[in-house]
Amino acid sequence: MEMGDGRSFRRPSERRHGLGCKLDTAQPLPHPAEMLPVFEILEPTDEERNKVLALLLDFNALHTAHVIDRPHLGIVLKDPNTSEIIGGLYAVDEYNWLFIKYVIVPSALRGKGFGTKLMNEAERIARERAYVGIFLDTFDFQAKPFYLKLGFEQFGELEGDEQTPRRFFLKKVLSGE
């Protein structure tokens, strides 16, 4: 609806919230104590996953709207002859922290400083972006000692069993350094 001065107005039932969720105010919402949701266990479709994510992001935005969303980060190792990607690092922005999701150095190149160079470059970019810090997870068969040597500290662990590897959560705080 036009207001006459170029602005538009939406009735409450037409307002959109978040990632396309439309709030229907034609039907009054029940008091939380009266609302009994139905639980359904499913293998979610992309649409169902995106709906749950949209609800979470809407809630989070009330508390984190001031946090800048930065682009993902990829640093790759390439074969000099073929330009094929043979290793690298992939990280994402997580509420003013850099979350390193994947790091892989080919077996033949381990112990030659390539992992350290990848991590140092990620840390340089994290500092440039003024992140609070960097965090990652690693399994017991991966590179926990390597990350500890780089100044990371463990802040969590998921126990394993004979079929499940132990998983460690590590962080390196950058602010104030």
Automatic annotation (TrEMBL):
<dbReference type="InterPro" id="IPR000182">
    <property type="entry name" value="GNAT_dom"/>
</dbReference>
<dbReference type="InterPro" id="IPR016181">
    <property type="entry name" value="Acyl_CoA_acyltransferase"/>
</dbReference>
<keyword id="KW-0808">Transferase</keyword>
<feature type="compositionally biased region" description="Basic and acidic residues">
    <location>
        <begin position="1"/>
        <end position="17"/>
    </location>
</feature>
<dbReference type="GO" id="GO:0005737">
    <property type="term" value="C:cytoplasm"/>
</dbReference>
<feature type="region of interest" description="Disordered">
    <location>
        <begin position="1"/>
        <end position="24"/>
    </location>
</feature>
<feature type="domain" description="N-acetyltransferase">
    <location>
        <begin position="39"/>
        <end position="175"/>
    </location>
</feature>
<dbReference type="InterPro" id="IPR039840">
    <property type="entry name" value="NAA80"/>
</dbReference>
<dbReference type="GO" id="GO:1905502">
    <property type="term" value="F:acetyl-CoA binding"/>
</dbReference>
<dbReference type="GO" id="GO:0008080">
    <property type="term" value="F:N-acetyltransferase activity"/>
</dbReference>
<protein>
    <submittedName>
        <fullName>GNAT superfamily N-acetyltransferase</fullName>
    </submittedName>
</protein>
<dbReference type="Pfam" id="PF00583">
    <property type="entry name" value="Acetyltransf_1"/>
</dbReference>
